[in-house]
Amino acid sequence: MTNKNKTSTYQRFSRKGLSRRSLLGRASVLGLGALIGGGVPFSAALAQEPVKGGILKMGLGGGESTESLDPAMALVQVAFHTTRTFGETLLDVNPDGSLDMRLATDVSSSPDAMTWTFAIREGVKFHDGSELTADDVLETMRRHSDEDSQSGALGIMKGIKDMRVEGGNFIVELAEANADLPYLMSDYHLVIQPNGGRDNPGAGIGTGPYRVVEAEPGVRYTFEKFADYWDDSRGHFDGVEFAVINDATARNAALQSGQVHIINQVAPKVAGLLGRAPGLEVKSVAGRGHYVFIMHCDTAPFDNADLRMALKYAINREEMVDKILQGYGSVGNDIPINASYPLFDDTRPQRAYDPELAKEFYEKSGHDGSPIVLRVAEGAFPGAVDAAQLFQESARACGIPLEISREPDDGYWSDVWNVEPFCASYWSGRPVQDQMYATAYLSTADWNDTRFDNAEFDAKLVEARAELDQEKRKQLYREMADILADEGGLICPMFNDFIEGVSDQIQGWEESGVLEVMNGLAPHKCWLA
Amino acid sequence: MNAYIAKLVAQRIALGLLLIFLVSIMIFLGTQILPGDVAQAILGQSATPESLANLREELGLNAPATERYFSWLTGILHGDLGTSLSNGRDIAGAISERLGNTLFLAAWAALISVPLAIILGLVSVLYRGRWPDKVISAATLSAISVPEFMMSYILMYYVAVQLGWAPSVAMLNDRMSLFEKLHAISLPVAVLVMVVLAHMMRMTRAALLNVMQSAYIETAELKGIRRSAVIWRHAFPNSIAPIVNVVMLNMAYLVVGVVVVEVVFVYPGMGQYLVDHVSKRDVPVVQACGLIFAAVYIFLNMVADIVSILANPRLRHPK
């Protein structure tokens, strides 16, 4: 490989990436400007000088005594946070959607986006004292891509044909072109471990600013500052403590009584009340998670495009955001993508509740008037049963009879979701549009939970994946969004915000819609006032 | 006649052991007939047929049930509870720590509530029908009527958040001194005391009142003994059996039934550990926890029966 025909895609990503997230534009579309403006502005946070020392205490929901420190197995929130705290990935996604070089110092690709080269940072030490090499990176990626791997990142490793090391570079050969590979490598499971973690995957050894001291799954985790950490601009605390507090009220009380500095997953119902308490602030950030109702496009009566359209016009998205999310969220537009994603086209018209159009489409569909069964369980997403009832009422006003069938939480994901033709579900989002579409809307995807099969859509997805020109990609994604919104089986009424409680003592907070609590980087970037 | 009592006690112990054995079979069968399996529960929404097959193979879920039961039972008799399916940790190690925490919490709750309940019971009998009796009954019955989580939240809000006297999260670790630990668990102990107090207090009161109607109490009163002495010296020893029974039931509850309080106060005890693993269908852990809970329950009931046997005046003073 010669250096001449390599394009430094990273620079292009970062230059164009900055402009795509038009915060003001989005806020005015949603009418939620007041809510979104709640956080400390990114630039203001950077302007202050970090203070070293102190112990950061976080009270986290979503922890289980069944979890391990193996990054491959990290599924729930607390496992995500522990992984982020002790480990690092090759790259991170910045809050503005650009890439942040962590254990890689440079990323470049061949012009056809088939071969990617990651230059690995030198002088980085693991917590066991050994030095990071490109071979550790290679072994890590191999472990996550083994056929019998249970890694949460297995899906994104599937497109890789070959991986190798040349000098200090880690090189990936893809089976088909993918311009998003750097974003995929930022997946939090892909924490670089010594020898890929093959010797002891759950040892909790990484290159992060904090070293694991105590790990009691489902109870607490403690970390101490790793003295040999390579990046002086991060890791300001002497130590970090996570308390696993799954009860929402107990989490709020722990923050209010000053036992912890940061809590995750504040319930929308109490966020407003909690925000009034002294000494803390409730931060709400638009994320990529969304709550959906999904129809199988190949099963009667949902194989009728007019009936699908009737149902899409029969749902009141604004009402759902107000009543289910208490305003801590934004309306969806029947695609799984929102402004948090790179290359989002915010000029697509918003679909609204329209009883007249819904009636028209319903009559055109020729449905026999028998009740349409919507399956739902509280476990589908918080407030799913209430949301289904709101849907039932708004559809009734359009003359469409919906029948709600309440299912038990137990077994919902194996017996109802992806099995029954019409049910409630959620998605937590993916790093890039390509991956979200490829996971659930490509006709051949395992989790194609709407049984969407559209050759044009599939072709555009593959075309966009290989396209390095960002303007052309954006146009392709726009066209795909139009196809999916009009033809697909997805009814996406709302995107939920990440809502977190943060003590006034915490400085350096920044908004990040990638994943919750600053994309898991609060221990790296914040400090105590 | 002591031989007769010894025989009764020995019979009771043998019965307890038999019960534990039967319970172990039931626990094993119970976990077998649950719908779905560990592999499905672990993978959840992200299950694909290949990853399910991989995980089932790795977890050894394909062996026949009887074979798995006997290897499990022999393991337990050797003190080996196996390893957790979901995170590969040693169960005995994890449980001993959790069980220690649960017993610590239960012991302090019992240490406060049992004497308090008996004293309050004695006082209400002493002042039967007058205001102390009514106040005690009203207070303890209201405490038991409020659901545990509600009581926990109320205490948390006023004592921890508003007054700042006690932590709202009862986290324990090895570096804490005994005093720090007691401070940490003060709120959960308070809630547990309130939950179990009424039951024991009312039972003490009822048992004593029952005995107080006996002819020999009337004799004692006619002899001119003070009422408090009549209650303490003559009535109480003969009402020990029912009181011990209800005390033991409540102590068993303190060990096996405090999941809600543990979750609310984030106390690292057995209850929360069990619940996490039930939701993951982590069968070895569920079986081990179930067996330990059953053993605690059977043991405490056995103690209650033995105390009743020993306290029975007809057996102690045979004609």
From TrEMBL, chain A:
<dbReference type="Pfam" id="PF00496">
    <property type="entry name" value="SBP_bac_5"/>
</dbReference>
<protein>
    <submittedName>
        <fullName>ABC transporter substrate-binding protein</fullName>
    </submittedName>
</protein>
<dbReference type="GO" id="GO:0043190">
    <property type="term" value="C:ATP-binding cassette (ABC) transporter complex"/>
</dbReference>
<dbReference type="InterPro" id="IPR039424">
    <property type="entry name" value="SBP_5"/>
</dbReference>
<dbReference type="InterPro" id="IPR023765">
    <property type="entry name" value="SBP_5_CS"/>
</dbReference>
<feature type="domain" description="Solute-binding protein family 5">
    <location>
        <begin position="102"/>
        <end position="448"/>
    </location>
</feature>
<dbReference type="GO" id="GO:0015833">
    <property type="term" value="P:peptide transport"/>
</dbReference>
<dbReference type="InterPro" id="IPR006311">
    <property type="entry name" value="TAT_signal"/>
</dbReference>
<comment type="similarity">
    <text>Belongs to the bacterial solute-binding protein 5 family.</text>
</comment>
<dbReference type="InterPro" id="IPR030678">
    <property type="entry name" value="Peptide/Ni-bd"/>
</dbReference>
<keyword id="KW-0732">Signal</keyword>
<dbReference type="GO" id="GO:1904680">
    <property type="term" value="F:peptide transmembrane transporter activity"/>
</dbReference>
<dbReference type="InterPro" id="IPR000914">
    <property type="entry name" value="SBP_5_dom"/>
</dbReference>
<dbReference type="GO" id="GO:0030288">
    <property type="term" value="C:outer membrane-bounded periplasmic space"/>
</dbReference>
UniProtKB/TrEMBL annotation, chain B:
<keyword id="KW-0812">Transmembrane</keyword>
<keyword id="KW-0472">Membrane</keyword>
<dbReference type="InterPro" id="IPR000515">
    <property type="entry name" value="MetI-like"/>
</dbReference>
<feature type="transmembrane region" description="Helical">
    <location>
        <begin position="12"/>
        <end position="34"/>
    </location>
</feature>
<dbReference type="InterPro" id="IPR045621">
    <property type="entry name" value="BPD_transp_1_N"/>
</dbReference>
<dbReference type="GO" id="GO:0005886">
    <property type="term" value="C:plasma membrane"/>
</dbReference>
<keyword id="KW-1133">Transmembrane helix</keyword>
<feature type="transmembrane region" description="Helical">
    <location>
        <begin position="285"/>
        <end position="311"/>
    </location>
</feature>
<dbReference type="GO" id="GO:0071916">
    <property type="term" value="F:dipeptide transmembrane transporter activity"/>
</dbReference>
<keyword id="KW-0813">Transport</keyword>
<feature type="transmembrane region" description="Helical">
    <location>
        <begin position="139"/>
        <end position="161"/>
    </location>
</feature>
<feature type="domain" description="ABC transmembrane type-1">
    <location>
        <begin position="99"/>
        <end position="304"/>
    </location>
</feature>
<dbReference type="InterPro" id="IPR035906">
    <property type="entry name" value="MetI-like_sf"/>
</dbReference>
<feature type="transmembrane region" description="Helical">
    <location>
        <begin position="181"/>
        <end position="200"/>
    </location>
</feature>
<comment type="similarity">
    <text>Belongs to the binding-protein-dependent transport system permease family.</text>
</comment>
<keyword id="KW-1003">Cell membrane</keyword>
<feature type="transmembrane region" description="Helical">
    <location>
        <begin position="105"/>
        <end position="127"/>
    </location>
</feature>
<dbReference type="Pfam" id="PF19300">
    <property type="entry name" value="BPD_transp_1_N"/>
</dbReference>
<protein>
    <submittedName>
        <fullName>ABC transporter permease</fullName>
    </submittedName>
</protein>
<dbReference type="Pfam" id="PF00528">
    <property type="entry name" value="BPD_transp_1"/>
</dbReference>
<feature type="transmembrane region" description="Helical">
    <location>
        <begin position="243"/>
        <end position="265"/>
    </location>
</feature>
